[in-house]
Design goal:
Pfam families: TP_methylase (PF00590). Belongs to the precorrin methyltransferase family. InterPro entries: 4pyrrol_Mease, 4pyrrol_Methylase_sf, 4pyrrole_Mease_sub1, 4pyrrole_Mease_sub2, Cbl_synth_CobM/CibF, Siro_Cobalamin_biosynth, Uropor_MeTrfase_CS. The chain is an alpha/beta fold and 255 residues long. The protein has two domains: 105 residues, Cobalt-precorrin-4 Transmethylase, domain 1, CATH 3.40.1010; 118 residues, Tetrapyrrole methylase, C-terminal domain (Methyltransferase, Cobalt-precorrin-4 Transmethylase, Domain 2, 2-Layer Sandwich). It is built from seven helices and ten strands. A hairpin with a 7-residue loop joins strand 8 and strand 9. The radius of gyration is 21 Å and the shape is elongated.
Length: 255
Amino acid sequence: MKVYFVGAGPGAPDLITLRGARLLAGARIVMYAGSLVPEAVLEHCRADAELIDTAALDLEEQQAVYARAREAGVDVVRLHSGDPAIYGATAEQMRRLERNGIPYEVVPGVSSFTAAAAALGEELTKPEVSQTIILTRVSGRASPVPEKEALAGLAAHRATLCIFLSGPQLPTIVEDLLAHYGPDTPIALVQRASWPEQRVHRSTLARILDEIRVSEWQLTTMCLIGEALDHQDGVESRLYSAAYAHRFRKARSGA
């Protein structure tokens, strides 16, 4: 018996990995957060699978499911939205599994920040603009952000910022960012990236709050900020330049 922490991806059922889909197709018990994982992803499950929505279960109740599965000798897939390594609340589950001698394995998934970049048609790292991506969030009731990781401090790097679950705090976020980023810095909101109801709004830090109703972006919103989101012509990477030689390709003469 084993527990598999599987990244469901950002929402679209065909953005789960092949390994994740294969495990879902064979699992007798599948646990998922119904508030975050769309039902379409569950189409990969076997017809007779026991599907358990964990949205209403606390940690101990979830552990009881694992214990029951061990007694029955059946595997469990614990389906997490995006990638389990990012804001997945998996560490506390793994610690309890280890204490109880239950083996587990992690299967990575497509994160919502990369799905948001895809929805925008943007590369988040561009030469001489930004070579760093900061993934963060703002404090919420469930998990406060350490003071040393406060958004105002991270913004000082002026890297590409991807702020998870950012909708309710947009006014505060914009205020903190304007202390370091210019008012014309591009900002984009992507709600439910890759879902059928996906929404996108692009603007600048100076204009964003005048263009939207914050109340309409409360849930499942990714906020991306940085000059890398500027669609204007920029410096091109040397990687594919005809004049750039490396072990797999010679430089073209005269380039």
